[in-house]
Amino acid sequence: MGHFTSRRGFLAGALSASAFVALPGVALAASAAQAEKLVQGLVGDVNAVIASGASEAAMIAEFERIFVRYGDMPYIAAYVMGADGRRATPAQKKAFTAAFQGYAARKYGKQFRKFIGSAITVSGTQKVKNAYQVATVAKLRGQSPFEVSFFVGEKSGRFYNMYVEGVNMLLTERTEIGAMLDRRRGDIDAMIDDLRQAG
User: In this model, does residue 44 exceed pLDDT 70?
Assistant: First the structure.
């Protein structure tokens, strides 16, 4: 896991996981202002969960409800599966998407309580190719502030990646899933079963 086992990494992971499932209701990001508004909504929801003081189980459940609002899941799931996604059946892709959602909620949601009293604020937005990069500043108790950048697709209007101090979330999770597939010698169904228990 490397960087993502640190406190900063877990906070970033929690935020990134908040984008792993997409549902109707989030407006298309036709402008930088709309991309920033999307991230502000995500950050606001996550801050509220962190500040709630709820139990770990309640936080994970709330976390999962939050991340169904913001992410470009078709893109994220396809990217994280990598080349193996091309040989997956539609049923396997659907099962992987559902399993990955639960995995992300468990993996990162369990860390929420460590960040009570912390805050994430939006600091600016810029156009980057066919997306908008929304910069935020994360302030953890007893830690120096650091930047987390969110990427919102111009066409999809949804969050699809983030960087925390230069670490790419999509690449990190792609490596994790690739390792799980390797352990199962490329068996997608077995990997999905493992993913349902992971996190």
Answer: yes
Q: Which domain holds residue 148?
A: 2-197
Work out the pLDDT band at 10, boundaries 50, 70, 90: low
Give the span between the Cα atoms of 14 and 89, in whole angstroms. Answer: 29
Closest CA to 176 of 38, 51, 27, 3: 3
Q: 2 CB contacts (<8 Å, ≥6 apart)? A: 9, 172
Tally the domains of the chain. Answer: 1
Starting at the earlier edge strand, list the strands of the sheet with 131-139: 119-128, 131-139, 146-153, 159-164, 167-168
CB 140 within 8 A of CB 118: yes
List the structure tokens of 2. 């490397």
CB 140 within 8 A of CB 8: yes
Q: Phi, psi (5° rounding) for residue 122?
A: -80, 135
- Using CA atoms, how far apart are residues 118 and 86, in angstroms rounded to an integer? 40
Sequence letter at residue 3 = H
3-state DSSP assignment of residue 58: helix
pLDDT in tens, 84-114: 999 999 999 999 998 888 888 788 777 666 6
The domain that holds 130 is classified in CATH as 3.10.450.710
